[in-house]
Amino acid sequence: MLDKLKQLGDLKKMRDQAMKIQKQLAQEEIVVEEGDIRVVISGDQKLKEFTVKGHSSEVAIEALNKAIKQSQELAAKKLQEMSGGLGGLMGGGGQE
Fold it and tell me: Are strands 29-34 and 37-42 parallel, antiparallel or unpaired?
């Protein structure tokens, strides 16, 4: 029982660290300019600016952010499947 509580404590520490890193990444900006195209994206992968020949499209930015979010969700799902999710960390999660 104490071992599982320790695991939960360790999991909370890891989650807190991940959230801190995510906040730091949100403050960072990556700017890429290629020809007439300018892209500004935050370190946490949110598209902030997308212009072609100086013209921007909010619809294009929303669509690209939606695609990025879906790819992040897919990656998180695959990682969870590989690690066995929280149940894997807690010693099997009741599957016997």
Answer: antiparallel
Residues 6+ apart with CB under 8 A from 24: 43
What distance in Å separates the CA atoms of residue 82 and residue 63, rounded to the nearest whole number?
29
Residue 9 lies in a domain: yes
Distance CA 44, CA 23 (A): 8
Q: Give the residue-averaged pLDDT of 41-62.
A: 93
89 pLDDT higher than 70:
no
Residue 47 lies in a domain: yes
Domains identified in the chain, total number: 1
pTM, to two decimals:
0.62
Task: Please indicate, yes or no, if residue 91 is contained in any of the structural domains.
Answer: no
pLDDT: is 88 or 20 the higher one?
A: 20
Q: Which residue in 83, 30, 46 sits closest to 38, CA to CA?
A: 30
